[in-house]
Model the fold of this input.
Amino acid sequence: MKTKSAVKRIFVMLMAMTLLLGSTMTVFAASNSVTKKASGKMTIILDPNETGNSTSVTITISGLPEDAIITKMTINTGTMTYNGAVLCNYMIVSSSNGRTERIPWTGKANETLTTSAFLASPANGTYTLSFNATNVSSLNLGTKTYQPSITIYYD
Done:
């Protein structure tokens, strides 16, 4: 009886090994990413009914492999301080490689915005961010400030 049970165990193990080795394997590449926060803040001060651009911040991405290319890029708008009725229109992102994109944005704090203008471009570089806004008040001065960060996914 012991011999039959040992043979069955060996047979079951051989079948399991055959199925395991015979099945196809799917391999997923690990996605590399880096997140950098701006050291400064984007700030705008607008008179009543005025539209304009904020101050700019720069974020430098360096130290990645020389051939690293962007597969995805997101911007977190960061925390917000404000006074008055300032409505954001869009975020402006540009890079040292000459690409620029305007991303529609209503001014929500800590919102993650995705850009596609930088896909397949070098990941290392300097990125400049600012935003455009309108003071919808007809009576009072308005201000808004954000400290954004960028996350770059690369291969």
Q: What stands out?
A: The longest strand covers residues 125-135. The chain is about 15% helix and 45% strand. Confidence is low (pLDDT under 50) at residues 23-29.
